[in-house]
Structures are given as C-alpha cells and as structure tokens.
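Need a sequence for this fold. Nothing fancy.
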C-alpha cells in the first residue's frame, strides 16, 4: 500500500488552522504521507514553510512531497516532488531529483501513459468526484474512469478529487493505490477525528 494508502494535502485557504497545525493533526491521526501544496505565498515563503514541515515530518518518520517546486523539494531534503501538467517537465525534474519520488497529476489516459513512460513514480488521477479544492478542476472521471486508467497503468495510481470516507471502498475496489485528501479533512468540524476515520477505513479495506 502506497505510503499508508492516504496522502494529506495541505491547503492554507482553511485559515482557521496554521498549515503546520494541520500537518501535525494528520500525522497524529496516523497519516504518513504529506503533500505540501501552496499557491498563494512567494517562493521564498514556500521554502521556509517547507523547511518547517520537513522538520515536523522527520519527527514522525513520514513522507514529505513538495508540490510544484523540485528545487525547493531538494533544498529542504523532502522525499519528492509532485508536478502538474504545466510544471517542469518530468524529464528535467528527474535531473534535479535523481532517485527521489516524482508524482505527476493526470486527468486522462494520454497524460497517464506519458507520465508512466517518462518514469514517474506514481500518478495522481482525477478528479474522481466533484471537488471545490481546485478552481480549475477538470470534469469528474468517476469510478469507471479510474478503473479504465488502472487497466493501462502499472505504476501506483493515487485517486484525488471529492474523496470522502463513504466512497473509499469503491475507490480502492476500482484499483487505486492510495487517495489524496484535503478539504474532506480540513472542512470537517474535527479534522483530527476525520483523519483518523480515513486511516481506519483504509486499514480495514486494505487488510
């Protein structure tokens, strides 16, 4: 199971919490994979926050992936980087990252196959369901779309977009290696308890 089967993605738009606070909640709940995603700060600010998160994840022996910025990921000694379709090309990112983890966001079969061929360690695929986390979200792919991707992709597939506790079983049955979650945890009344719920359900599903 890919890094515990669940990735917590930070989202600073939930301003009732500090990013570092949400990461600790996720880690305390048993999530072992954090993706730091930040779209509003300067690159310098992102670096300093990433540095803080790396120290926190080291305490928990957890995986830290930096969204978008391969150079920042390398400079803070994160385990990897996650790149979108408009970011640094995978081939060039590999020159920077070496053997570290590189994940690629994909939204269709062509993008998924290209990422696999290019040597990505995993792909994010979605959105599976409607989501409010990303303003530029693509058309939801549904469980059928996830199943189709799983049939042609051999590397791990991380399902993203509208992931909720009640749809986890369908997602893993469709072949997902893991799920990525942001708002489903942060938008709850008790983010820690919701994160624990995710972890327990996934542990039960994966056995």
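Here you go.
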């Amino acid at each position: 199971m890919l890094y515990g089967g669940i990735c917590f993605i930070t989202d600073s738009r939930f301003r009732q919490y500090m990013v570092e606070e949400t990461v600790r909640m996720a880690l305390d709940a048993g999530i072992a994979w954090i993706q730091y995603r930040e779209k509003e700060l300067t690159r310098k600010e992102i670096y300093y926050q990433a540095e803080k998160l790396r120290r926190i994840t080291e305490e928990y022996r957890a995986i830290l992936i930096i969204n978008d910025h391969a150079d920042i990921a390398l400079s803070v000694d994160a385990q990897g980087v996650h790149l979108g379709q408009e970011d640094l090309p995978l081939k060039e990112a590999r020159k920077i990252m070496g053997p570290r983890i590189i994940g690629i966001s994909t939204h269709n079969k062509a993008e998924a196959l290209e990422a696999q061929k290019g040597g990505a360690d995993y792909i994010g695929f979605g959105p599976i369901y409607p989501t409010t986390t990303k303003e530029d979200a693509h058309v939801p792919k549904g469980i059928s779309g996830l199943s189709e991707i799983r049939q042609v992709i051999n590397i791990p597939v991380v399902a993203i977009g509208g992931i909720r506790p009640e749809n986890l079983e369908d997602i893993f049955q469709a072949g997902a290696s893991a799920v990525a979650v942001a708002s489903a945890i942060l938008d709850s009344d008790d983010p820690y308890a919701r994160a624990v719920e995710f972890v327990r359900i996934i542990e039960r599903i994966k056995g």
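For context: The longest helix spans residues 43-60.
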